[in-house]
Amino acid sequence: MNYYGVFTISNDKVADYKELNTVIRERSEKILKKFGQVAVSHVRDPKLLAALEDVKRYWRDLNRPTLTSFSCEAVGGDPEMAENAALMLTLASSGFGIHDDILDKSSNKHLRMTILGLHGADTALLVGDLLIVKAWSIAQRMIRKTSN
What are the E-state strand segments in the chain? Predict the structure, then answer.
């Protein structure tokens, strides 16, 4: 800390922060790409597909996937299992977030329209439910894999 009470960061620390930011972005982007694929998989209804495409654009959670990945790595866990857990948490969180918007009647959040605001309550509820069910499906597969 310097004389004025402001923290100063050395060039080495700045490089460390940039490297950490790159790792966080890479790990989370990998999960968010899978999230986008799983969210729309096996969905044929054009109305639901349109809403899910908006979810894919809207949901940019970097924290859960990265924290799951780092936690797994820290204890020597299976990276594939960590990716599945991160995907499950991301799907469930997005579904719960949509349900929260319905309860709060939030048509705008973070300076953009929510799924509720874009598609109405009925579609938002279906999309939220679908994402939560997909999360449970991944959890079920993970449980089956570990119990074999």
Answer: 108-109, 112-113
Tell me if 125 sits within 8 A of 99, measured CB to CB. yes
- Residue matched to tokens 């799924």: 115
Other Cβ atoms less than 10 A from the Cβ of 49: the count is 13
pLDDT tens string 43-79: 999 999 999 999 999 888 888 888 888 888 888 888 8
Cα torsion 102, 105, 109, 114 to 10°: value is: 50
User: Per residue in 102-112, pLDDT tens?
Assistant: 999 999 998 89
pTM over 0.70: yes
